[in-house]
Amino acid sequence: MNNNERILVVDDEPANIRLLGELLSAEGYAISVARDGNDALAQIEKLRPSLMLLDVVMPGLSGYEVCQKLREQPQTRLLPVILVTGARPEEERIRGLDAGADDFLTKPVNREELLARVRSLLRVQALHREIAQWNEKLEARVSEQVAQMERLNRLKNFLPQKVAELAVADGGGELLHPRRRQVTVCAIDLRGFTPFTETSEPEEIMGVLGEYYAAMGAVVEQHGGTVERFAGDGMVIFFNAPLEIEKPEEAAVRAALDMQARFEQLRAKWLRNGFDLGLGIGLSSGYATIGALGFSGRWQYAAIGTVTNLSSRLCGDASHGQILATSRIITQVESLVETESLGEKTIKGLQRPVPVFCIVGTKPSPA
């Protein structure tokens, strides 16, 4: 049965309508009838038929004129039309092709030919519908991807790129909500930056900072860290947030060692230009509340807790070339690095002194 396919039969002769209707109804097609061209055009608006059987010679609009009008409208441009021709089939077919007809039947209509031509054009129509559906899906996907890229570009203005990408994929929801997470925090800061700015031109300062941030940022990306913020000549970096990573303490320590090594290359260049700058690094690990903080139009992905304050204090105490770390960090990486205990230090904001270690290098690989 073909209950989903409606065919509009257009003819001014009742006998022709009755014959075509009976033949098609017997095959399960739904049949609608129009007595002339204007009636047909009006019914198409309401019925949305799958196919039209259209007589050529009718009062008012001819079949050719109806066909031309159908092809002028986007919604009926692909509607299959079979012209039912009369005594001069070849001449009428040429005119019908020019008008936009898809196929032809010659009176008197042969049942088998009628059904074969109807089935053929309905298959083509079904293919057009399928293609249209795929196009709609494709357009929807492209629109969503464009919208996603726009959201990502907006988020990149005030969130780290990694956080922005995850927020867009997540719909901007759960990822940015405050949550408790164990993180390793690395704070880095330039030594001698204030005297440098007092004796250097703004262009020189911006050039140095540009090289510094580019070099340090590349190391952070390599080790899976997320830059929380830039603060003048300093950076705060998270490991294990927003993405969980294996062995965040180890990743942070390796990143710190690579940053010091990369910084020495920059320092050698800067010294030749008379810029005496150093790098101090502080590492700590612990629980923090992470998420987006700020207000409309200006957000920051941040971690709130003692762990961030501790890493910043250790960074402030570190001399050039030093990597200061807490005992929690050291217990996780003691098989990888050489350390020197600096004893317990009183850290501003903490009631009890904290054991502090200086990471002096990596241990040699076992033979």
Q: Which descriptors apply to this entry?
A:
eight-stranded mixed sheet
What string gives the helices and strands in order? EHEHEHEHEHHEHHEEHEEHEHEE
The rounded Rg comes to 38 Å
Low-confidence spans: none
Distance between the termini: 80 Å
> Helix/strand-derived class?
alpha/beta
Number of strands: 13
Quote the beta fraction. Answer: 25-35%
Shape: rod-shaped
Measured as a percent range, the helix fraction is 40-55%
Tally of individual helices: 11
Can you give a write-up of this model?
47% of the residues lie in helices and 26% in strands. With 367 residues, it is of the alpha/beta class. The strands form two sheets. Strands 6, 7, 8, 9, 10, 11, 12 and 13 form an eight-stranded mixed beta sheet that branches. The protein has a five-stranded parallel beta sheet with strand order 2-1-3-4-5, with helices on both faces. Helix 3 links the parallel strand 3 (51-55) and strand 4. The longest helix is centred in the middle third of the chain and has 46 residues, at 111-156. It starts with 5 loop residues before the first strand and ends in a 5-residue tail after the last strand. The relative contact order is 0.08. The model has no long low-confidence stretch (mean pLDDT 86).
